[in-house]
Design a protein that fits this description.
Structural class: alpha+beta
Order of helices and strands: HHEEEE
Number of helices: 2
Distance between the termini: 78 Å
Strand content: 15-25%
Largest sheet: 4 strands, antiparallel
Strand order of the largest sheet: 1-2-3-4
Low-confidence stretches: none
Number of domains: 1
Length: 123
């Protein structure tokens, strides 16, 4: 009888502890993910010289927190160690977006992008 009672209490307590640890509200995490995806997509299609408006100097560019409590940090790293085989170092960069939000909603996304040109007047 005691084992049944302990099992029942454990079944009630474990979900409370689990959701308390990772946040009972999944909305801030979903919002942080959406903000990170949107910012990364904007950087991927932006001008190659300044994907986030700060150039690609390897220094993070923080965006002030908005009224909902999310802050965005963007970073751009050139392909200095030739991690992408077959692509010249100057023609590839790694973009990183980190979004921090309320309730511990921290999301980091990153992607490689390469320089491309479809015309004869390529910079």
């Amino acid at each position: 009888m005691a084992m049944i009672l302990l099992g029942f209490l454990a079944a009630l307590i474990i979900p409370v502890v689990w959701y308390g640890r990772f946040g009972a509200n999944p909305v801030p995490t979903a919002q942080a993910t959406a903000i990170a995806q949107s910012t990364l997509e904007q950087g991927m299609v932006a001008n190659y010289k300044s994907p986030f408006g700060n150039g690609c100097k390897g220094k993070p560019s923080p965006t002030p927190a908005n009224s909902y409590g999310f802050s965005i940090t963007t970073n751009c790293t050139k392909n200095t160690k030739n991690k992408l085989q077959g692509i010249p170092k100057k023609d590839a960069e790694y973009l990183t977006v980190q979004v921090s939000g309320p309730s511990g909603a921290d999301i980091t996304l990153g992607a490689w992008r390469t320089k491309y040109c479809f015309g004869s007047n390529c910079p």
